[in-house]
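Supplementary Data S3. Sequence and structure tokens for construct A.
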Amino acid sequence: MFYSSITLLICILKPFIEKKHLVNAEIKYEEVFLIEEGQSAVMSREEALQRAYAAGLDLVVVDVSRKPPVAKIMDYGKQLYRDSKKVGKGKRTVVKGVRLSLNTEQNDWELKLEQAKRFLKERNLVKVQLILKGREVMYVPRAMEKIKSFAQLLEEMAEMKEQPRRAGYAITMVLQPLS
């Protein structure tokens, strides 16, 4: 028998698609514990479905672990929409960068420090890079001291998530805001 590529894809992915609730005709239980507008009662599936259809809503099983399972009458489409909106609301962690060099002047140093403080106040991670140019590579210990002193100036606002480490011509560390 010939199957279309969509049908095959659905057959392959079906076990991986997570469905949260049983809705309307999918409910196979004989009785449900129906909760609606402050009232609750144990009733047959058919009676609960009739009430849901009369209200123009869906019968949704919200807890299958109880005997009989708990069901609610609600607009399931709206509920799915609200749930999808909640998924994207979480604060994403953003990594902001500050670049220094071994010969960064005092004024620029303070400017970079203020920039890092602003990033930390916004609850972002701060990636501090000290770039070594040309023969500055010989002064790695001095560069390590300089990047550690930068972190010490921010210790009331941040802690080191990643210790300073050398990667090629750069020394990098990551600071995270204190909880």
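Construct B, processed identically:
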Amino acid sequence: MVGLCHDTAGWGGDTTPVEGLSVARRGIAHFQAARLRALRAARGLTQGELATAIEVGRRSVTLWETGGRAPDLAVLVRLVAVLGCDIADLVVVPAQERTLLSLRILSGLSQEAAATALGWSRQTLYAVETGERAPSDDQRATLARVYRCAAADVSAAAVVTADLRHRDLQAKLHSSPDSR
């Protein structure tokens, strides 16, 4: 799984047909359970205290810390605020696997918030994040500004996103009944 989101909750309908960018119902991919546990302990918080601070049940924190689930983006943003860390401290995506979607998640923006900040429609952002449409040079510069990352990171993520879409389309083509 190269994409970053595994959960439609809190994503305003972010669903992606591209396999490498797919959305399931388990929270943010690449979420680091052990890091959450260590950061919580370092802050001297119990699971219950953290749960109360971010307005979730203690069971959710337990599931996140054991790797049974991962939080959605809205909760992740609250988590990092309470723990005094960055999203990248809890979500580690290897550089060679970063997609345009993962850059958005690492910036802490929902699809709706990112589209608004970019001055794009959600449909345009969706098309760019799924590799359906390659971002222009100007769009890449805008993405870098809004996501607070280097333009080179956006360019590299655009290549990964396009490659994933290409592989997914090839796999679908070869697995279709007409191709046999």
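The first strand starts at residue 5 and ends at 7. The beta strands are 5-7, 25-28.
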